[in-house]
Specification:
The protein is of the alpha/beta class. Helix content is about 30%, strand content about 15%. Pfam families: Amidase_2.
């Protein structure tokens, strides 16, 4: 459990990890903080967007839509590996998930099976949306996978967390399948190796 980084510290942490960052508008102040707290933070959550086209994906994640206002994450990880920062603070990305999973993330233990949605994750997780159709066929380019690894490691490194603080949306909320196309165990292994 930790206080969130400032926007400036977040940006510096990503760049120090070798992430290519694109700052989108006034991302540092674009958030949903008026709807509830941002923090304490406990981990990093990875999603896929079910969209194609970077410009369209970034716009959607920044602005949201009529049923879910933006920002829908903190950063959009494009196919080319660039990370587009669209918001900072509370974002509509995690939704309600399993309190048992949250306890495991806080304790950095193996995750239990997700079976309920009783805890708001939006204040608790840094969120990254990855540009992918999520159909199991849309490829994950190496540059994009490396960027997912780097952003996860950057946040963990700053907070002193291990790879066990990195989870997928499917591990948090019943019925979710994202990210689809690689396993979270594989990603956590990459993050673990990077943090050594």
């Amino acid at each position: 459990m930790a206080s969130p980084m400032s926007a400036g510290t977040f940006l510096r942490a990503l760049r120090a990890e070798g992430v290519t960052v694109v700052e989108v508008g006034d991302w540092e102040h674009h958030n949903r903080n008026h709807k509830g707290p941002w923090g304490p933070v406990n981990g990093v959550m990875i999603h896929h967007t079910v969209t194609s086209g970077t410009a369209r994906t970034v716009a959607l994640c920044r602005d949201g839509h009529s049923e879910l206002p933006g920002p829908l994450c903190h950063g959009v990880i494009a196919k080319d590996g660039k990370v587009h920062l669209v918001g900072y603070g509370r974002a509509n990305h995690a939704g309600f998930g399993d309190d048992d999973v949250l306890r495991a993330v806080v304790a950095e233990k193996s995750l239990p099976p997700v079976n309920e949605a009783n805890t708001d994750g939006n204040p608790r997780f840094y969120g990254f949306e990855c540009e992918n159709l999520g159909d199991g066929k849309d490829p994950w380019p190496q540059a994009q996978l490396e960027a997912i690894e780097k952003v996860s490691a950057a946040v963990c490194r700053h907070h002193g967390w291990t790879e066990k603080s990195v989870i997928g949306h499917l591990e948090w909320q019943p019925g979710k399948v994202d990210p689809r196309g690689f396993t979270m165990a594989w990603l956590r292994g990459r993050v673990r190796d990077r943090l050594k």
